[in-house]
Please model this.
Amino acid sequence: MLDLLLRDAKFHTMDPARPTARGLGIWSGRIVGFDDQVESLPARRVVDLGGATVLPGFVDAHVHMVWAGLRENALSVAPCSRVDAVLDVIDRAPGEPGEWLDVVGYDQRGLGRHITADELESVARGRKVLLLHDSGHACVVNRAVLADLPDGVEHQDGFLAESGMAAARALRQPYSLVEMVAAIRTAASTCLAEGVTTVAEAGVGGGLISHSPVELAAYQRADLPLRVRLMVAASLLRDLGAHAGDDLPRGMDLGIHTGFGGDRLGISALKVFVDGGMMARTAAMTAPYAGSDHSGQWYADPDEIRGYIRDGHRAGWQLAVHAIGDRAVDLALDTIAEAQRRHPRSDTRHRIEHAGAVRPDQLGRFAELGVSAVVQPSFLYYYGDDYAAVMGPERADWLYRGRGFLDNGVDLVASSDRPVTVGAPLRAIQFMVTRQTQAGNVVGAGEAVSIAEALRAYTVAGAHACRMEHAVGSLAEGKLADLVVLGDDPHTVEPDRLGDIEVVATAVDGAVVHGQGLW
Model:
């Protein structure tokens, strides 16, 4: 007997063997079959969906759950457009001397310049202030924090980027398990409201965006309402003292690597940072940003980065390499190629996270190495006008490509990098199809993809990149019944309305976990 029979719906399965269906049967959280396969079977509950559109739950292949959840409840200066307004918000915030004050929503571009350490000190009132840049790649701190930084950490009047920011955050650590569990639950609720049922947390345990050395324990305790794949910070790799014949120069304790865990929570890739971010102007480019003599920076010493990539590959990890600028992409691709030559492996599914500015000559190398491109279309929807300006007209078409990857045989994976931008997949899908920014300008018109291709990037391709294609990403017999019910059909609405489609309900394991109680 079926647990649930859903009828009279437009199921877009994302499975080429059966692209569409009108009915779907569920038993024990899994899909049993479609249409005539299940129509005559007895069911504990039968629900008529009245022609609603149903897709597989979206897969967001690059998110930051704890950061996103903490950000939703943190002190924010996002509405401020003047330096004095930012300082006033910080001055009025509660907090005792010696305590840390975390402030989010900071973006120097709207202010015309960076806030300084002395300015923060003038409103700190004895507190340690960490003003986090929206990119997640930089921060500004007051003098009290600078005094505690290790020798040799460079800053520009309190502005810290990449490894410098990581050093400041390390002083702030750790967050408690209670704080992290609450943040994960908050972020999960937002994901489910947007139709996302599977996410890849882009780095736990160390590195640039860390919250505690026991961060994984928070996910174990969170009673997760959606599926999470955890990327592990490369900085956790160490000499294991393994048998010489094991060929494991560095790894994680107990030999854990990609694939450990189950369908609800598991370990995915090793996260390696190569460069910074375009918003903070730290993405590593081969030529300077327009109107500048600055071309970004490495996250750490390039030899250290190469070592993480080589040793991670050798130890059996899938690699998720953060590389935004084309210079960073060169280092990532070159080192992956070297690692594969020295230690051949099959089905590695290595990923370049962001791939924000990719030259035409680099596209074929992704395909040659079997490396997927995990892009964030909403970066350009929200920040595309600024990014195009700093790239200049000769490089604007390189930004967060779509068609260029697909035409070169590269697996195109879409994600949000929440909370850097709003995470809604439908808004990102709209940009992928129209390439139109929030201001109405078009960036890289030739990189537009079809609606079907954009949907695939948020379902099938995302599941494959997260090594979850056996369970999610499409609706097929035996797969988990993770569904999103939409208020309109993405295939038939006007492209500029895709982001406005309502998420009516979201289901995980066949149970509604957000929205209308349709069943």
